[in-house]
Every structure is written in C-alpha cells, then in structure tokens.
Design goal:
Helix content: over 70%
Low-confidence stretches: none
Mean pLDDT: 88
Oligomer: single chain
Order of helices and strands: H
Number of helices: 1
Structural class: mainly alpha
Radius of gyration: 24 Å
Strand content: under 5%
Largest sheet: none
C-alpha cells in the first residue's frame, strides 16, 4: 500500500508542476502581448494627436 500511495502522490505532484509550468508560460505570452498592445496604442495615439493637432493624452505635447 505504501508504494501505491507514493505513486499517487508523485502523480499528483507531477500534475501540479505541469499546471504551474503551463500558467507561467501563459503569463509570459500575455506579458509579451501586453507590451505589443502598449506599443501599438502609443503609435496610434501619436498618429491621432498629429492628425488632429490636439493633446489627447494630457502630456502637454501633440504627436
């Protein structure tokens, strides 16, 4: 019974480790996507401010 219990525990630990690795991978992908979104948003804001010649984001400059 002891060996069987050890195998069950090891299997559960392996599953939890895979889930943790999976979450870490997903977080890394989300962080990269967030950075890309921020860059695109900044470029869009600069283009819009230049086009309208208005300070939309309140930083004191246009473009």
């Amino acid at each position: 019974m002891g060996i069987f219990w050890d195998l069950l525990q090891q299997d559960e630990l392996d599953k939890q480790q895979k889930q943790a690795d999976s979450v870490e991978d997903r977080v890394a992908v989300l962080e990269k996507e967030l950075e890309k979104t921020r860059v695109l948003l900044k470029k869009t804001l600069v283009a819009l401010e230049s086009h309208l010649n208005q300070d939309i984001d309140g930083d004191g400059t246009t473009g």
